[in-house]
Amino acid sequence: MQDLVYRGIIIKQADYGDAHRMLWIFTETDGIIKAVRYGVRGKKTSNAAAFQMFSYGDFKLRQSRGDIMTATSADIIDGFYPVSEDIKKLSLLSYLAEVTYSILGEANPDKRILALLLNAVYAAAYRNEELIKLKSVYELKLMSIGGYLPKLDACGECGNDGEYFSIDRGTLVCRQHHRAGDVKVEKPLLALMRYVAYCNDKKMLSFSVADNDVLMAFNSITEKYVSVHCDKEFKSLNYFYSICEV
Question: Residue 141: which residues within 8 A CB-CB, separation 6 or more?
């Protein structure tokens, strides 16, 4: 059968058999697809680096059985190798990839989300962004693009000024309509949330936060927002926190 070329980035992998590896590749045209690379973990493999996490390039895939394809070769555009050399960066990006998979699922093309993920991987590899900043920004931006754009202009119940953010309702709420568990948001925190949710995707990291307490409050909100609306706890996030001092 003829090989087909898919441009994409490996966002998940798992060992398969004695020497093989199952890959989940986020492609431009077909979304996230599964492919197996036979023998990639063998001693005589010459191009194993091309099939590592976050390798980005053109993958030649062959239809084999069911929805799983066979990866026959790869022409790598960027391996983002600084990520693979830093366990903290790798663990964070593994979490971001897991959240992306949870939001998107398989075989759902979304070039905007793909570009967002590539920007995050690039920032971790080459811009040395603060990891908590990168994490929280990606969480809110992904949720905003993926169908969970929060309402941050006014109370979602009555239209008055909002003083709290309701994570489960995804909206600001006023004092009258806030419930237990809603988060009080001061002006600096609200300004940050609005910027990230509504800014141009390429500008999502183009800011600085002088007050670390604001950044940590932002991180807490975005993390809970992901967990509640994905209805999931992410093991990769637990691992990230186990090796990073926050």
Answer: 116, 196, 197, 201, 204
Full DSSP string of 49-90: GGGSTT-EEEEEEEEEETTEEEEEEEEEEE--HHHHT-HHHH
Q: Which two tokens stand for residue 104?
A: 């998107």
DSSP string, 206-225: ----S-HHHHHHHHHHHHHH
Cα–Cα distance measured from residue 104 to residue 139, given in angstroms and rounded to the nearest whole number: 13
Tokens matching residue 48: 């194993």
Q: Provide the phi-psi class of 212: left if phi over 0, else alpha when psi is between -120 and 50, else beta.
A: alpha
Q: Are 151 and 171 in contact (CB under 8 A)?
A: yes
User: Among the listed ranges 12-21, 125-134, 165-174, 229-238, which one has the minimum average pLDDT value?
Assistant: 12-21
φ, ψ for residue 147 (rounded to 5)?
110, 5
Measured N-to-C along each axis, helices 131-145 and 111-122 cross at an angle, to the nearest 10 degrees, of 180
Residues in CB range of 192: below 8 A, 6 or more apart: 207, 209, 214, 215, 218
Instruction: Based on DSSP, count helices (H) and strands (E) in the chain, helices before strands.
Output: 7, 9
H-helix or E-strand containing 33? Answer: strand 31-37
Task: Give the tens place of pLDDT for each residue, 165-205.
Answer: 999 999 999 999 999 999 999 999 999 999 999 999 999 99
Question: CA 162 to CA 154: how far, in whole Å?
Answer: 5
